[in-house]
Amino acid sequence: MAELRPTLHHLNDSQSQRILWLLEELEIPYNLQLHTRVKGRAPPEMKKTHPLGKAPQLETGDGRVIVESLVIAKYLIETYDKTGKFKGDGVKNDWIRDDQLSNLAAASIGPPMILEVIMTVAVRLTPFFVRPLVSVVHKQLRGGYSGPELDAFFKYLDDQLGDQDYFMGTTPGRADFILSFPVDTCTAAGFIDIKKYPKVEKWHARCRERPAWKRCIEKGNGYDLTFKD
Predict the structure, then answer these.
(1) Count of alpha carbons within 13 Å of 140, Cβ hemisphere only?
(2) DSSP state, 41?
(3) Per residue in 148-171, pLDDT tens?
(4) CATH for the stretch 95-210
(5) CATH number of the 7-85 domain
(6) Same fold for the pair 7-85 and 95-210
(7) Segments making up each domain of the chain, as ranges
(8) Handedness of CA 221, 165, 111, 68 (dihedral sign)
(9) Percentage, residues of the chain above pLDDT 70
């Protein structure tokens, strides 16, 4: 029934793209509410469904609003993945690995990536006469912290893939969906050179070739993570 469909509140150029991808992989009926950034921020109307006004937001069929990508992805897989396709094989690719890699995307990769985002935007927005100074600070932070941290995490991810197509085995799992956003961001914005991590590079290309990914890009309203505008 249409009223029982989940509704995704999706924001352009944001992490909610990975939830839209997951919904397409699940091949379930859902409603999509597109929101567009206003001066780079989520629009005020997103606070109508949740007081924080952030994306993604998922309204469940019974009217509950779930936020945070990790929780939304877990809810969708637990609720709609009846065959266990996206839950790993239960041996090496079990719930512990899934939780560990999913949390790595936010708790560990997040801080150095966000620092790079902030400094990249700061350099762009700073008045031209002080921009060289801010650029020097950014270069020092990248050399002493964010660069080495991101390099260590991406080497770890490269090692974790091993000979698997996806982090959770032969098909994507929650870890793959959640990791897609930091990998997309770091690649598009030039925070890392993905060619230094050949297994991650192949995984990234493999994800982009999935029909569900192509559909989620078509249904969304933009996914530009370059931070150039």
Answers:
(1) 6
(2) B
(3) 999 999 999 999 999 999 999 999
(4) 1.20.1050.10
(5) 3.40.30.10
(6) no
(7) 7-85, 95-210
(8) positive
(9) 98
Is this structure's pTM higher than 0.85?
Answer: yes
Q: Which of 125, 123, 99, 98 is nearest to 39 (CA)?
A: 125
150 neighbors 192 (Cβ within 8 angstroms): yes
* Length of the chain, in residues: 229
Residue 211 has, within 13 A of its CA and on its CB side, a CA count of 3
Residue 2 scores a pLDDT above 60: no
d(CA 219, CA 59): 18
Token pair listed for 195: 């060619």
Q: Give the residue carrying structure tokens 């690719």.
A: 93
Which DSSP state fits 65?
E
Q: Which helix (H) or strand (E) holds 33?
A: strand 31-35
Over residues 10-27, the pLDDT tens digits come to 999 999 999 999 999 999
Q: Which residues contact 173 (CB under 8 A, 6 or more apart)?
A: 77, 86, 87, 88, 93, 98, 166, 167
